[in-house]
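Re: the pair you flagged

First of the two:
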Amino acid sequence: MRSETPRVLGRLLLYPSAELRAALPEIRVRLQAEEALPPGVVASLAELVAWLESADLLDLQESYTGLFDRGPSFSLHLFEHVYGEGRDRGRAMAELIELYRREGLALEVGELPDYLPVVCEYLSVARAEAAGEVLEATTPAVELLRRRLHER
């Protein structure tokens, strides 16, 4: 893919912090310049960025935790949605780590390969063929997460 868009989108999924807030002006500029995203999506993301800039940081952190960290239904660890905590999840994560290694992406200590911001980071640097493999592996979980969030 080699596009900044997945990286920028992944950053918007990180736990709200002072560092994230400091990056929001750059994120806004990159999103406004992105031609691959539909205008409606860009407008929605601009609203998200504005909210992240204006809301109290503790309120943002509470909202984030309340949404993504209170049970598996909205987890940003994608394979949790399709494999739960079983052996198949471990196997799928090992395969994902191997894909990352082949493309030169090293995970931070304690970082899981199925964490959506990590997947987005990978998609921003991977060759198209390798990105396609990761998209194929993660799309069912992303779609399930999207549906759950939409319903909520």
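Second of the two:
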Amino acid sequence: DQMIDGGLRVIDYKTGYASKAKLEPKADDLQLGIYLMALRSRFGAEVSGQGEYWMLATGQRGVLPFADIKENKVRDSIDTAIRGILAGQFEPNEKCGGDCTVLG
């Protein structure tokens, strides 16, 4: 969406319930960081605005201004995933409780 001030807003609608990670996204949030990188690729480096998670089940939302996103940390996460894929590393990550696979 284009905001009144000319900035851009990316809304990611979530159908599940709110989590702290979505209500208070951190500066290295991978998903919102990738959205920012895509916007910069399309519109140039001077993109302003914010990314938002909207929890449809509860009506809550989490907001992260693009200016607060640490793109270097997002890029590091992407690069780590790429290296892991290339090396064939697919070990479960303890953050997922063994229910998911995270690279790197």
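The radius of gyration is 15 Å.

-B.
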